[in-house]
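Re: the 108-residue chain
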Amino acid sequence: MIHTTTISTNKNTSGTKQVSPLNLGQYRIAACPRALPCGRFAAQVSIASGKGSASTDRVMRFVDDFPTFDAAAHYAVAQGIDWVKNVLRMRDRPYTAAVLTPANPICI
């Protein structure tokens, strides 16, 4: 699925880029691209939910590498949005993912 998102990047005091998080319902999606030794960038995304001691943070790292920081950030955010939408869909309709098959008939 292709998502059109606007990702704003800022430079912090150490001069490294940071991506502003995106809120989607109760979830906070933040891309965390990291530089690889070869000069390309790895995509990873943090998906946080909850508050205080009831908070959860999932971090997903992806195998693909990207030529730019922004390309890795866009990919990570798109994957995070897909994950959140899938969770919300499954929460609203929990039985749609399971394939219900009839039990094997009993032969007597």
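The beta strands are 9-11, 17-19, 22-24, 27-31, 34-35, 41-49, 56-66.
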